[in-house]
Amino acid sequence: MIRFLLVVIFLFMFLILGIPVLLVLWLVGKSRPGLKDRASKAIVGWAFRCVTFFAGTKIIVKGLENIPSDSAALFVGNHRSYFDIVLTYYLFPGITGYVAKKEMLRYPLLKDWMKNIHCLFLDRDNIKEGLKTILAGVEEVKNGISMCIFPEGTRNKENDTFLAFREGSFKIAEKGGVPVIPMTLVNTAGIFEDHIPFIKRATVVIEFEEPIYLTDMDRSAKKNLGAQVSSLISQRYFQLKEEHGLTP
What we know:
The protein is an alpha/beta fold. α5 (110-116) links the parallel β3 and β4 (120-122). 45% of the residues lie in helices and 15% in strands. α1 (2-17) packs antiparallel against α3 (33-55) and α2 (19-31) runs antiparallel to α3 (33-55). It is built from nine helices and seven strands; from the N terminus they run αααββαβαβαβαββαα.
């Protein structure tokens, strides 16, 4: 319970004490949006590193060399924990936003930081609004801002299983002309979700797989990209669990 309290207190203090910082960043963004982006990334990345430390999480990161340095990308991964965003954000080398559910807009201050790091908010129940969000993501990657999306559409609540990857999630990469970087996340639920409300020490493995370039794929392959990427991630998931002794 101590770890849970440390994380909650830190996040609360960060949001409250960060109010003047948000104001300064807003002013900076009026004339120097690039500086605002870099500063927001550094501040949020620092906060997430602190949360990782307070949670006592050990992260094993693999495949960073697979992230292209000459273009934006669409990162896609399996989704099991609230910590998936905390643990992946500061690993991305460039400015990267997430596609989040629109319900996150309910939370003041948090939503402001999310907007600062280029998060987009998806209405999962409205096809027309959802399409607008995807098109906004296309514009982001065309402008050099990478995006991260969890194609299962929600947190999977059962360990060692995978929900179907929604094909529409990959439209950002297809229409934006950027590669897809599959991410395999192993044991993130071991931090919190497996024993709510406690946060416990856990070892997490995050592996970035080789980029997938949609320009090299025919139309039929693109139609089944979600299933292909899901299969790749699930295969690596079980291999990594065994390699790092994370099996029961």
